Each structure stands twice: as structure tokens, then as C-alpha cells.
Prior knowledge:
By secondary structure, the chain is mostly helical. The chain contains 12 helices and no strands. It is 77% helix and 0% strand.
Amino acid sequence: MTKLARVLNLRDLTLLTIGSVIGSGIFLVPGAVLTQVGGKIGPAMLVWFVGGILSLLGALTYAEMSAVNPKAGGLYVHLRDCFGPLPAFLFGWTLFFAMNGGTLATLAVAFSTMLSQMIPMSAPMNKVVAVAVILVLTAVNVKGTRSSADLQNWTTGIKVGAILLMSIALLAFGRGFSGAGQSMWPASFNGSLLSGFGLAMIGVLWAYEGWQYPTFNAGEVINPQRNFPRAFFVATAVLIGVYVIANLAYIAALGPAGVAASGSVAAESLRAVINPTAAKMIAVAILISVFTAANSNLLSCPRV
């Protein structure tokens, strides 16, 4: 049986995890989260923090399994060993036909749609661009795991850097926290707030979703017993920090009411605090984010 070369180190695994998770959620979800907790800043930040802790617990569980049995295929291998070949077989083909294929197609279409907002394109050209994205990423991955991992590292670094730079600018120049003291915590905790907290958690967990993908690369990780737990812990901690900082930055820019009413909070925040031209840069950040997520999908899922 042919074995894959173990070429992915701690940095690769950490950035692959971060890049797999950060998609479009942090640019779109915060408004809905704040709305569902009644526009209160404290509960909203708590949802993002608790969602991150839940994701960390799940990630560390998967890290332990991948460290114990570091074979290519990740979840497929664990399902096969725990429940037998049939559930694993069904999972594998579902991943191929729907989960992985559908996700990759969705990300490619999202990329072309976002690009068309910057460069006007016809509907047929949108499809051509979407297919081209898949072909380019496929070519990089066919060249080798090292090439794909290097691309993943660079694009993830750019993506995280863009979010942090945006957050610093919004926190420095925004005035949304002025007079927001009454919006910090609710006067009382009741069933309605608890229900809203649970609904908000759905969107937050979606924004954190994706940390399971690196388990598929377990057969290519150097020293998996050491690197999987460390990479998943560091990556999830970074994600919690980035998400909380970004949400505070949005509130600094628009105020709690403005964030709650926004469906595209990142762009509107930059438009309000900097200028409309700066808001267009969010489209570039989302393009890179979607491209990175698509590459992580191709780097990990085909190992099944």
C-alpha cells in the first residue's frame, strides 16, 4: 500500500485549520447574532466566546483521534474502525457527491459572484471564472501537498492580517461605544434571552465550522501525536481572538443598533468609519477568504 509523505508541520496544520474555518461568516453573521440576543453587547460576545470553546472541545477530540490513528482519511478511518465499513463507505460517498463537491462548487460560485461586484461580468463569464478557480486549485494540489500547503499558508496569513488591520482601524476611529453602556448587559436574564442565545449559537458555530478538515491529512502530518493537539489548540485560540476582536470593531464602527441592522457588517463598518473606497477592500478580503477555504477543501477532503 502506497503511503503519503509526511510533509505537513505544526505551522502548516495550524494555518490549514484557521484557513478552513474563516470563510464569509465573520463578515456577515455578527449582525444576526447581536439581533438574536436583543442588541446586547455582553451576551453577543459571550456567544462568540462559548461557541469558540465548544469548537475547541470538538477540535481537541478530533486531534486526539488523529494522533492515536494518524492515517489519511481522518473521519472516514475513525468511522470505519468504530462502526464498520458500511457507515464509513456511506460517509465517503456522501462527502464526494454532496459535502465536498457541493462545498467546493459553492465556494467557487461565491468567488465569481464577489469578483463580479468588482469587475462587471456576464452570467456565462461568472460560470467560467468559477470553473477556472477549481481548475487552478486542482493544478496546485496535483503538483503536490507542499505546493498546496504553501499557498494555504500565504493566503491564510493575508486573510487574518486583513481582518486584524480592519479591526484596528475601526477600533481606532470608530465611536460606536459612546453611550453604549445601556446596551452592554440586559437588565434581567429570562427565557427569551436564553432562547436568543441558542439561536445565535447556530450562526456562530457555522462561522467556526471547518476545523475537522485537517484530520483528513493525518497521513501527511509530521509527528502527529505532538502536532495535532497543539495545532488545533493554537488555531482555535487564534480564531476566538480574531472573531471577538472583529465583533468589537464592528460595534465600535456602527454601534450596537447599527451592527444589529446590518446584513453586510464589515463593508458597512468601513464605509461609515473610513470611506466608501475602503469598503470595497472588504470584497478583496472575502475573495481571498473564499479562495483559501476552497484550497483547504481540495487539500484535505480528497484524502478520503
